[in-house]
Amino acid sequence: MIGDHEFKKMDRKEFLKKSGLGALALTAGATGLTSDLFAGKAFANGKDEDDDHGQKDERRFGETKLHFDSDGKFKIVQFNDTQDDEDIDPRTVQLMERVLDAEKPGFVVMNGDNITGGTDTPDEVRKAINNIAMPMEERGIPWAITFGNHDEDSLANSGMNEEAMLGIYRAYKYNRNDAGAKGITGTGNMNLLIGGGRGGKDPVFNMWLLDSGRYAPKEIAGQNFQGYPSWDWLRMNQVNWYYETSVALEKKFGRKVPSLMFIHIPLWEYRFMWFASVDGRTEADHARAVIKHGIIGERNEDECPGPINSGMFSAILDRGDVKGVFCGHDHVNTYSGNYYGVMLGYCGNTGFGTYGLSGAERNRLRGARVYNLQANGGDVNVETHMVFAKDYGIDLIDPVTLARNADPGLVPDEGRNILK
Known about the structure:
Elements (H helix, E strand, L loop, with lengths): L11 H7 L9 H4 L32 E4 L5 E7 L10 H14 L3 E5 L10 H18 L3 E4 L8 H4 L3 H9 L19 E6 L7 E7 L9 E2 L2 E2 L11 H18 L5 E4 L6 H7 L7 H11 L18 H8 L2 E6 L8 E4 L2 E5 L20 E10 L2 E10 L10 H8 L5 E2 L2 E4 L1
Parallel strand pairs: 1-5, 2-3, 3-4, 6-9, 9-10, 10-12
Antiparallel strand pairs: 2-13, 5-6, 7-8, 11-12, 13-14, 15-16
Helix pairs in contact: 3-4, 7-10
């Protein structure tokens, strides 16, 4: 979880601009944006079910606006931790574009840490958002976001909180975020139903998009969190909202609607699954877990949940409608497995402008997660897998590596974009 990058001879923005890898190579004419994009009006042209204020009408409860195709198929792509400022690494956008062109999904989830610190004015926030919105907008692909712990990193300078950013996201033509559930913790908590083929109105599938928060409070009941994880957790009112909405959907449609849940910060159960244990941390524990839970993929850093177990997994087990929970946050984890009937999985990370593996392998796991849904009677089968930048021929060598070769005085720090 890295903040702004620092350089010995120039800051990151100046470095990228001088190296020819500066702000995203999009022009207003090529993107369908108004010509004053870089004057701060970074919104897609056109409206889609908008009101007079440019915001989309709120969906009625149980309404479907996405649909499976006539063969009973639907595809979702998840991008995680694009996590850059207005001078985005062009390879991040290149990766998004190539995945979208290859997979042709019906929906995209941008699952938190979509932008990061360094966006110090409202215009810079808009530009950073526009960088990651346009791959879907140009292709007419519906999409939505969740928030992560870094999206508000520049709040003190830009004055743009999550609510303000949600308004920017919602102004895009193909964005499907709504204002979010009222009276609960977080910004933009919502669910989105997918109807059957040929315009069927009854939902076949559901997506839960939840704000897993930013950081733990300084203290509770006079006790601080020193020695505990410093990140946030889903709060009980969010768990209750999921549970009650799930019950209401079942009551409305006469059956449970199968679903996936997207959150940025992982649940504690991810770690329990990896070791098939609450306390064990040995290779033998993990070997047992691989067999028990069918784990595939890599774990290159510890899971980073908050200090409190939210109880969301218990609620999910009780309701029995969530087929999988998928997160980001821990950039170099890509694993997934079946934990007592619920798939738990990571998406790695998409953004080249933030931390990755160490050394020459820094960008090896930049990628996206693909979900292939197949309606099967009253149920939906879900197949999921990772795709990686290397699969699309994207250059994995960093500009800092090139700079180091040209000037040995520029030394990378643990494979991250920090020059000492």
